[in-house]
Structures are given as structure tokens and as C-alpha cells.
Fold this sequence. Notes:
The chain contains twelve helices and no strands. The chain is mainly alpha-helical and 250 residues long. The chain has a domain at 75-246.
Amino acid sequence: MGVMASERSGRHMKGGSRRTTVPLGGFLAAIADRIATMPSEELRDVVLALAESIEASERALFLQRFGAGPARPVEPIAALLADVELLEEEADATGEPGWDEFDDYQDRYGWSSDDELREPDWTPNLVELLRRTGAVFVKGDPSAAVQAYERLFIVAAGAMENGWSIAAEPADTDVMKEAAARYLRAVGESGQREDRPDRLRRAVSLLGRALMGESVSYAAVEGAGWAAPAERGMLREGLGLGAHATGRER
Length: 250
């Protein structure tokens, strides 16, 4: 005898809560209504976030269905790393902020909200290199992105430890946080799976020094779905996030 729908439903419910289903017509209508109210920049960000979550093997099909042209060539990693090296040299020559001048200013004029926002002159170059590295990752070369991200966050961590503020402007802070999430994803998507936990621990430790209190969204990190359960727990702990950060238990 066949199994009735009610019986199948009952068996399904015993194994866990049943997922809510949405009819296709209502689903498409809701999406269309939302798109109609979205500014172009917000729509662009949503589509790019969706595209970034697509597995590498599915990206060509996505481009075809989206009506997009072929993927553009990735920036040569040698050129990017050469510019990273120039930044490293500039950062090494920077030293610490002028504390004597800072103390004199405090004595003369008092405390202000900008007193702690002492950025080195090369901060805009750092932010731009993080953007360029993000383009390398998004275009499909996580191994190359890891090389650049690691060196850039080492520069940022060194400056923070010397007393500088890095990317204090809100827009620059957003670039740093996005770069941190992509760095962890790039680590997870490159190299050998056997040593991935150790590489992730090193990356989380480096970000803890470079971001100094700024949080990284766990949801942004897990987008590719590469993390095993133990690795997800390690990331939650390392990033200072609880299970609630994902919106559901994993």
C-alpha cells in the first residue's frame, strides 16, 4: 500500500520541525514587491551578496542566467603583492605617533573626540589594497587573496600595537570588516583541508590584533558553507560570537 500524505507528514514531523513552504506565485510576488521599493545601490548590494554565496562550480551558470558577460580577468597577483610590499615598507618606516606633541595638545586644548583618531598617512592605501584584494577573492582566486590579506592585516595589527588608529572613518571600517570576513572565507576555501583548522586559528588571531574590538559577522564568514561543525564552533569562539549570531543553531 502507498503511504498517505498525512502519514508522510507525521513521519517528517517526528524527525524535526517542518519547514514552511511558500507557493511560487506568492514568493515571486513578494520578491517583485521588494525590488520595486529598493534603491539601485541597495539592489546592487543584495545581488552581489547573493552572487558571492554561490559555489564556484555554479558561477558560470549563474552568469548565463543573469545575462552577464564572461568573468573579467583577475588582477595579476604579482602586481597586487608588489603594491602591498610598498605599503609594508612605508608602514615599517612610520614608527609610533608623536606622543609628546599629542600630550602638549591635550595640556593646551583639552580632550576631544578626535584625540584617539591618529591615523598614519598610508591608511588610504591600506583601504584601497583591501578593496583590490577583495576583487581578487570575489573573482575566484582565494589562495592569492589569502597572501595579500594576511600581509595587509599584519600591517594593520602592527600599526594598532604602535598606538595608531586604522580606518576609523565608518566607510573605511566597513571595508576592514568586509575584508576580514572575506579573508576567513579565503582561508577556508584554499589550501589543504587537513590543516585548515590551524590556518583558521592563525587568521582569527591576526584579525583580533588588527581589528581591536570591531566585530566580524559570522553570517558573512559562513557564506560559502565550507566550514565543518568543529570549525564553525572554533570561528564562533574566536570571533567572540554566540550561536545566536547565525540566527539559528548549526
